[in-house]
Amino acid sequence: MTSAILLFMISLYDLLDAANGQLFGEAAARLFTGFCLDIHFIRPDEIFVARRTERGDTHQHMQEAIARGATGLLCTNPPDFDTEGITVVIVKDTEASLLSWASYALSKFKPTVIAVTGSSGKTVTAEAICRVLGTRFSVFNGAQDDYYFSDSRLGLAVALAHLSPEQKMVVLSLEARQVGEMEVLVQIVQPKIGVVTHVGYGGMAAFENVDQSTHEASVLVEHLPGDGLAVLNYDRDEVRDMASCTPARTLTVAMSNFGADLMAYNIVAGLTQTGFDLRQGAERYVGRWTPLLGKHQLYSVLAALAVGQFCDVPLDGGLKAITNMESLPGRMNSLVGINGCVLVDDTYDATPQSTHYALEWLQSHRGSGIRTVFVMGDMDRLGEHSRHGHRLVGQQAAEACDIVVTQGAEASLSGRAAIDYGMTPGSVHITYSATDAIQWVRELLRPTPNDVILVKGGRSSRMENVVRELLNIDGDQSRLVRQGAVWQSISHGQPMYTTWVEIDQKAIAHNVRLLKAMVGEDVTIMAVVKADGYGHGAVGTGITALANGAKALAVASLDEALELRNAGIEAPVLVLSYTPVAAVRQALRRNITLTLYDMDLAYLYNQVARAEGQALTVHVKIDTGMGRMGVLANEAIPFFRQLMKLDYLNVEGVFTHFSMSDEDLDYTAQQLHNFKMVVNPLRANGFDFKYVHASNSAAILTMPDAYFNLVRPGIALYGQSPSETVPIPLEFKPAITWKTVVAQVKALPPGSPVGYGQTYYTEEHEQIAVIPVGYSHGFRRKPQHWQQVLVRGQFAPIVGRVSMEKTTINVTHIPDVTIGDEVVLLGKQGEAEITPYAVAEQLGTNNYEVITTILARMPRH
Ligand SMILES: *Cc1c(COP(=O)(O)O)cnc(C)c1O
Q1: For the chain, how big is the Rg over CA atoms in Å?
Q2: What is the model's pTM?
């Protein structure tokens, strides 16, 4: 965001006029400094625009907006609070009003509008154009970063509010997010000059294919006036072909194809700047430089020079302006990283296209003593192209990089693809959180001045936070995107789902560290990630646990173990339960450790291992009083005697499991005693084990003398209590939140039935909200249901029956509940919290069942 001096550019009367608005009450302020669409970003004397968003209706924020400094409100419903001293404008549709105002403002000042579109490079191109035109004119840059990326039209109106009359040139970036949107944008801004940078996979969630986004870009070119200019990228066929559909003059720019009006060649892609020669007709300009990194950014330079030509800026003057231009934050911005490495910040956003260019630049520096490192976060807004896009990036990364570090579930696909295309698993590091990515780079990669680290990711992945932690110079923080307290509090990405689970990997990392501190250096942590990581995702939890102190993982079955291996996890994995003989060969081949507790099985496992010519690693389980799986304690010594005769079994460990460690410490002490009575004589008889283990979470929290040299925490990793008697210490953090959204709100008169079977009748006038979640998602129906959920930080009781995928809640006591409001089923909202423990009480089970039965098909973030 720019923090320029605030000018009062919006006049109340223009607004009433343009938007066909009505004053509500007396007018107070008559001039405003800007429009504000999000109270987080409000500045003094702005007019707050209330509207319906996917996240709910922001009319509810009006009072807060005033409290934070707004002096006006643009809304559809009059406020129900005292509006003395505030100007309130009522319109039929606030978004349409903003757009009318935008075209009104442009028609009033009549500047020359230069519109930039394309799938990447728009903002840099706009900035370059401003630099070049700025040598002769007063230029307004309306293409600055905006945070309204769910709607570029509104962003446009917000930007134009800062236009002043003496600015005769206006540069805007136009992005169509759906078919037909460019037409609307063009009608509003009436550009004279149009620039098309690239077309390709971009923020294309709403497009079915590249053709549609290409078509949207061509709409801009078609609508230019006969005395206007189209600047086209000559190297891209689809863009070059647009010349045939515009009445305007065209200027083409290129790097690889002769025949363009302006051409850059002899390109030198340096580490901190880019060199080039320029040719225009017979004229040549040799040895020019720009701090914009990467060949692809030269298109921005060329487009800006072309626009300059058209507006009578001499080429030499334009070139000088470009040479003095600085890189924009988050766009291939070369910074000094820790230990003096070259840290290239490209975190503003990522599409497969822009990532392709960034990697192309990185690849050009590979070799000659330089190590190229790519740190990548999830690309967002790719819709169904996501998987393909991430794999493509991974494929290219295998060529371009020595090391790849990924953050997040989608980016892990790139990491896997990089391995598939030839990188060694050791040079690809997959993480699920910023903390782990940062830590890995700082502590294990240990950058040197010979490293070039490129950091990139989609907006929601917030990779700028990774860059911040890798800076060498504190002051450079101000050169990053999306910094400051407000940004830290904002999460991005509209949920595409009706119900989903959010996993806080930071919380898991934190919990593992606490456990490690508790058990000490000499005790190995084997993180238990069975049942899909207790509903938290086994792969993500496993990767996070291993990055934060765990050395091994445990699961319940071989298929769970294989899921971890298939995700690239190489740490030891123990299957805690039964493995059929038929699956043993798989276990051997994927290096998975099995549990043994029966002599017949031991013989059969041994046979398979011999046939494979490879020893099978096993841990022997002793039943010390749980009465479940295991060799009975008094049969243990003969069992081991026989076992030792089987030469294809490598007995690495011996363990037991406590049945009462969360309730009865005396009984557990007895079990511990029984276990020692097995282990000690075994040792005395010369049996030696690498690992001896017994403790689950409850025992870790209560019985330090039961650690032996390995512990198996499960529930504590996730920040949940083993039981009422053994609550999790306060410093642990719960990691799971289960959410949905309000799908409908209706007012029902007294005596109305609600839901299947009419088990509930309203008692008075009630507001009933429908949430799109039901027993098919694990939101239990019978014999007891959840009882309540959270809406707007308050408890809302469930009324009527829970259906297969819908539930009704009473929100009469919670004001302003609207469609799209977030609902929390499990976890915190504001100060209020629904713990798995509280739900378990309602359902008549334990918190383990609550978190593990939330279905695995639920999307996770
Ligand atoms: C599930 C399990 C654990 C983990 O138990 P928590 O109570 O979740 O810590 C440990 N060991 C075995 C054998 C298990 O089956």
Answers
A1: 32
A2: 0.75
